[in-house]
Design goal:
heterodimer, A: alpha+beta, B: alpha/beta, Rossmann fold, 32 helices, elongated, binds guanosine-5'-diphosphate
Chain lengths: 90, 727
């Protein structure tokens, strides 16, 4: 299955993207410890990202960053803004 | 906290103190085992619940041998501590911990296939003023993914030793040990500048004011609301807190530094700079195997299906695979008991050995094969990376009932034994979440329940080939269903509060290492056997005594002798006469009104009562009350194949001559065992982990109540249904 990449760059928070979208992280919102945890785990501005899937009942979601895969809940994913990018993830 | 300057250089012959630090899943345990061999022990540290293993090893450098004490710290992504256990790593590396002095060197483990992320912890470690060696694992995996790390260049860039190791193959270990010694002898701490000058100077000022290690101060300063701050508040009081607040305020207003996110924002650019030019990626546009496999394994529909299939397959496998070995072991203990019985001559001691000790330990030993299979299965699932997928699939469900997806792994390992399960709830940072997981962990069907399950399922519920597997599956499902319900109730009453953060790395799939799995199996088996040898044996002896005395007939003869002298069929009647007058039987019979609603008689009641200290005993106590003495049986029943306890239970009669065990009776006993908290070890561990007797007491009370009510429900409904089917 190939992803249906939108023809132009779109910015939305991570929890709103459909499956298999490739993108680039634009920003991680907040200066609190939740933001710190996201950043520590390598969810950083400029990193390529792909949405791999959602668990039963739609939450949590699994994402792929450049070198590893991670799952997080939508409530945290909401803080991450992603822009579709033509860059491949691998 | 004020011991930071305790680190004295090692004198001749004194072992170097070295701590091993790294992210989870980087191969840290494998490296520790490869380095220290079997010579390690688990440290027990007051106030923390994580296990810290300590190993001793020898290393040679420049022709001289040195001793190293290696400390294996719990795997973590960052030194930012959100729980007392996470603070342990900070304590150890700053030398604030217990009697240990500051380490002479740190070994940081990083995953070559995921270098930047795993260097984050390293970037925190290099600031601690201790020599650091970087060990790179998974170099082979990285190469397969087209990632090549130039260790020489990286070493030059960082100014410290970078050693590629493969602990599974044993390569690079000698070089690593030599590098550790060189670093420890050199005493040169890395010099890295990542944080802004303002933060550095504030850190130094506060460290001086509080007489604390700067490493600890940084944690208190940066991690707002974190564990280090809590510790500081508790130990240094209000003035320190005020100073901390003022310092933070100053950094925020005067220097525009956003504190909690300061670290990643400063460290990652540094890491990228170090890594640039040392990591080569061949352009490889293929999705990795892990990603492809995940399309299926975490799919909401297929993934859940696969998950359920794996579980079902596993329970059936336990039943089928372990059976022949169990039968053979059963024969062996029976044989041993009757042989020893012949050697010892009659008397209470004979009875103690043949009826108490041997069947008691034997009944436990018999289930060793199943425990080995269980832990093999768990080990494979964990090591191949599937466990994280299971947590992912289950998270929403778990979250619904107030548990974290991370609680899934502890609950799943409670299927082996609640004790390691409760210990592994330490991965859950949130205290309320953790308590909820601890309190429901004993509801999961542990391997000690398996003996009863297998016995009763085999005796009463194996009319068709699929029925035993299904029953077993159903019994395990009780735990899977009831535990979340209890957790939900708790989280909406006693443990109510806001939802914590959940983030879980999904490790790449890999072929599980035989060594890792085998080690888990051996450790589990050993622990189980040690328990069989102590607690279970002790309770078996007590149970035996309670079911042996008074051992004289009304006219003053010794019961076993009377039975010995009598003929064939009489024996069982006499046996029952004797047993029904023993202490435990009297207690149990006085509780008859309690047993009636669940369809038991005093014998089943006695076995249930006897197994409160350790449920492993339940099968053996059934053996004692139902007269599973090999000698009597051989003459009384005769037929070899009917020697088994199962057939004894099938034949047991009530006072009115009807069969004691109907399917509803068997089921009610099964459900009771499934839900009841019959394990002193679990309660003791729970008390240790929660540091109060309140939670174990609560757990005991609610589980016993649930078990009894569940047994009533099953028996009453079962009897009704049976009435409809066979009017
Ligand atoms: N391919 C490869 N596998 C490794 C290497 N080091 C460890 N492993 C495997 O990685 C898995 C996880 O290792 P473990 O020590 O349990 O990781 P920990 O979570 O960091 O303690 C095990 O199956 C090891 O056999 C390595 O250098 N290369």
């Amino acid at each position: 299955m190939t992803s249906q990449q939108p023809p132009f760059a779109v910015e939305k928070s991570l929890d709103k993207w459909p499956l298999q979208i490739q993108g680039e992280i634009v920003s991680v919102e907040g200066t609190d410890s939740v933001a710190c945890r996201l950043l520590e785990m390598g969810i950083l501005e400029g990193e390529p990202i792909r949405i791999l899937g959602y668990a039963p009942l739609g939450d949590p979601m699994e994402i792929r960053l450049r070198d590893f895969q991670l799952s997080l809940r939508l409530s945290e994913a909401q803080r991450v803004t992603v822009r579709t990018a033509p860059l491949p993830v691998d | 906290m004020d011991t930071f300057d305790k680190g004295s250089g090692p004198t001749h012959g004194k072992p170097f103190q070295v701590a091993l630090l790294g992210n989870p899943n980087t191969g840290k345990t494998t490296l520790f085992n490869a380095l220290s061999g079997l010579r390690h022990r688990t440290g027990n540290y007051p106030g923390v619940t994580v296990e810290v293993r300590k190993g001793a090893l020898k290393a040679s450098f420049n022709g001289t041998d040195h001793d190293i004490d290696l400390l294996d710290l719990p795997g973590t992504y960052s030194l930012a501590a959100r729980s007392p256990d996470e603070l342990l790593a900070v304590d150890v590396v700053t030398g604030c911990f217990g009697e240990s002095s500051r380490p002479d060197a740190l070994v940081c483990m990083a995953d070559a296939s995921n270098l930047e992320r795993s260097l984050y912890l390293f970037s925190q470690a290099v600031e601690l003023g201790v020599p650091v060696v970087l060990a790179l694992s998974m170099v082979d995996l990285a190469a397969k993914q087209g990632i090549k790390v130039d260790t020489r260049k990286l070493s030059e860039q960082l100014g410290l030793a970078v050693i590629a190791v493969n602990a599974t193959k044993g390569t690079g270990l000698r070089e690593l040990k030599a590098a550790i010694i060189e670093a420890a002898l050199g005493k040169v701490a890395p010099n890295a500048q990542m944080l802004p000058e303002a933060v550095k100077s504030t850190q130094a000022e506060l460290a001086k004011a509080w007489n604390c290690h700067p490493g600890f101060v940084l944690r208190a300063l940066v991690d707002e609301g974190g564990e280090a701050e809590k510790r500081l508040t508790a130990q240094k009081g209000a003035t320190a807190v005020a100073e901390l607040q003022a310092a933070r305020q100053k950094l925020t207003t005067q220097h525009q530094i956003a504190l909690p996110v300061l670290e990643p924002r400063c460290r990652y650019p540094w890491i990228r700079k170090q890594v640039a030019g040392t990591v080569e990626r061949s352009q490889n546009n293929q999705k990795g195997f892990t990603e492809k496999a995940d399309r299926w394994l975490v799919h909401p529909f297929y993934g859940t299906g696969i998950f359920l299939l794996i579980m079902l397959f596993f329970f059936q496998a336990i039943f089928v695979l372990a059976k022949p070995v169990m039968e053979w072991l059963g024969e062996l203990t029976d044989g041993l008991a009757s042989w020893l019985g012949g050697q010892l001559g009659p008397g209470p001691f004979n009875s103690l050995v043949c009826e108490g000790v041997i069947p008691g330990v034997g009944a436990v030993l018999v289930f060793l094969p199943q425990i080995l299979i269980l832990f093999a299965f768990m080990g494979v699932l964990e090591d191949c990376g599937y466990m994280a997928r299971a947590a992912f699939l289950m998270d929403r469900l778990m979250a619904r009932c107030g548990l974290s997806g991370k609680a899934f792994i502890p609950l799943l390992s409670s299927l082996g034994c609640a004790v390691p399960g409760i210990l592994s709830t330490r991965v859950i940072e949130n205290r309320r979440d953790r308590l909820a997981a601890i309190v429901v962990a004993p509801l999961m069907s542990c391997s000690a329940r398996l003996p009863v399950y297998v016995l009763l399922t085999g005796a009463f519920l194996s009319q068709t080939w699929w029925l035993p597997g299904l029953t077993l599956f159903g019994l395990y499902m009780i735990g899977f269903v009831v535990a979340p319900l209890v957790a939900w109730t708790l989280k909406s009453t006693l443990l109510a509060g806001e939802k914590p953060i959940f983030m879980l790395e999904m490790p790449p799939f890999r072929v599980p290492a035989v060594k890792v799995v085998a080690r888990r199996m051996v450790e589990a088996a050993w622990e189980f056997l040690a328990r069989a040898g102590t607690l279970i044996l002790a309770s078996m002896v007590v149970v035996w005594a309670l079911l042996h005395y008074p051992s004289t007939t009304p006219d003053g003869k010794y019961w076993p002798e009377v039975i010995e002298e009598s003929k064939g069929e009489d024996r069982l009647v006499l046996l029952e006469q004797w047993k029904s007058n023993t202490i435990l039987a009297r207690v149990s019979r006085s509780l008859d009104p309690l047993w009636a609603p669940v369809g038991w008689d005093w014998r089943i009641g006695a076995a249930a009562l006897a197994s409160f200290p350790a449920r492993e005993v339940v099968v053996a106590s059934l053996g004692i009350v139902f007269g599973q003495d090999p000698e009597w049986e051989e003459t009384a029943v005769g037929d070899e194949s009917e020697k088994r306890l199962a057939s004894r239970l099938q034949e047991a009669k009530r006072a009115d001559g009807s069969r004691l065990f109907t399917i509803p009776t068997a089921l009610s006993l099964l459900v009771f065992v499934a839900l009841c908290c019959q394990c002193v070890s679990t309660l003791a561990v729970m008390a240790r982990e929660t540091r109060s007797w309140k939670w174990p007491a609560f757990t005991f009370a609610y589980m016993t109540t649930l078990a009894y009510l569940g047994a009533i429900l099953v028996f009453q409904v079962g009897t009704m249904l049976e009435g409809w089917i066979r009017p």
